[in-house]
Amino acid sequence: MAEIVLTGLSTVYPNGVRAVDALDATIADGEFFALLGPSGCGKTTLLRTIAGLEPASAGTVSIGGRDVTGMEPGRRRVAMVFQDYALFPHMTVAENIAYPLRVRRAPKSQQREVAERTAGDLGLAGLLERRPGQLSGGQQQRVALARAMAMEADVLLLDEPLSNLDARLRLEARTFLKRLQRELGMTTVFVTHDQAEALALADRIAVMEAGQIRQVGSPRTVFQHPNSTFVANFIGSTPMNLLPGEVRSGTVQVAGAKLAEADLPDGTPLVVGIRPEYLHLGDDGIPGTVSIVENLGISSLVTLECADGTLVGVTVPEHEEPRVGARFGAAPHPGRLLLYGEDGNLMP
Amino acid sequence: MSAVVLRRIGYTVFMAVVLAFFAIPMLWLASAPFDSRPGVGLRWPDWTLDNVRSTFDHPYALGSLLNSLILCVLATAVTAVFATLAAYALSRTHIPGRDVLLYVLLLLSSVVTGTAAMVPIFIMMKQLGLINSYYGTALVMAAGMLPAAIFILKDFVDSVPRSYEESARVFGASPGQVLRHVVLPVARPGIATILVWSFVQAWGNFLLPFLLLRDVETQPGAVLLQTMRDEGGAANLTVIPVFSLLYSLPVIALYLFVSKRYGFRFHGGIKA
Fold this sequence. Notes:
heterodimer, A: alpha+beta, Rossmann fold, CATH 2.40.50.140, six-stranded mixed beta sheet, 9 helices, 20 strands, B: mainly alpha
């Protein structure tokens, strides 16, 4: 019903910065879609271009089959929650929620009714007469969401929805947001720089760099098969090991250890990617000395230092932490090894 | 020990003198209007309301206060409306050389209505037939206040996050609705500041109305005050104290009203 299709979309700022660069993407109806990337990668600009707050320099945006590229933001049937929520400070919660109806000059009674119903759905029933300044961060966020829902738009855009909440509240809000999106079944695009947030919430993630999408896929795909070293580096709470390796007589070797068979010519330089979670300590594998043990709670991150100075991170379960200085090998779980070429792209 | 005592005594005396310097005119303003023989000195009044009566009987006194009010309301309204619109536009669009323009305007504003420009302004107003006109005088006063008002308000509007307006736009608000529903209410404390500031500036302005309003019927309080003399040319002390008191009341009332209503508070972008 409200599929978003971006074709050849570019957004260039007056100062010449290409924030979004010839980007193509299709976001399915009802999908929870994450735009993930480091700061300055153009993800917020892309969101604002979809909303119509930044004019597209080239390409088209279509929502639900309508070309909205040149359309005013208000006519795109797009609701947006801003990073700072942008709740109007001089209006009560009820007035804020009913604002999209006030703009359409809906009767006062209908405004009140929608505000009460939406507020009730989001657990804000007792707060209708308060001002935004008298609410907690989590309540403010829910008012912003309620206001976006009251608009009855086709698409919901969220700019860094969880970044203004403190750590504990963030987890709560994350669960709440995911349930809300599922219940509404609304096409939702959100921007985040936090890979854990993207993995937890999204149906699909687009990882962005320099105005372009590097990879699109389900959280599982992006986590397990990052298609480039950039994505590999970005996704995962403990960074993926990216180790220099080479091919010798049909096997991939890292720091002298044979790791896998490869049908590649001898001497091919490559980067071997393996997540610390997919390595285990033992007698085989990449040999090294335990140099650092970092406690992560339920597991520990062990850093092995190889003879040639390469550092390898390995995650071990609690109570199995090795002593610093002990010698171990780090062996990959079968099928978890990823090979990247010199250009940083995943080898087929 | 004695040095400390001496210093404290010196400090206290100094403070008392400073306090007296500012307090005596206020006390005079409170006592002289109700004294049967008001002078320029300060003394406990010999209570009477005769001065009030003679001031109310003065042919121009009350009329001049009304003139002041008309003039100030006009000048303040023009300043506030144009300063708000200009400040919003200048804050939200990027014109090359915008900041230089603002600084130059601010610099020139003291010239536009400054003493040096009085002769050209007088000639211009005379040719336009705007001598003795409230509208003409109010416009010149507003022109002089606008640059500073725009400068102050632009700074204020700059501090209002754009996401308020963008949010309203996404919900479908037209530019007019964005202005009425969001920008004006959010910028209200800033606009209130400009209203008070320009009203007080216009209320106390002497030179411009003195030159441009030649007819005593049209003169505002600030100008009339210096014509209040008796036959001998000495200051008319039966009328001046009461008139001064009446003259200062609107400003005090305005200040109290705005302070109560808006509290001159600062709406910053600091997360509470």
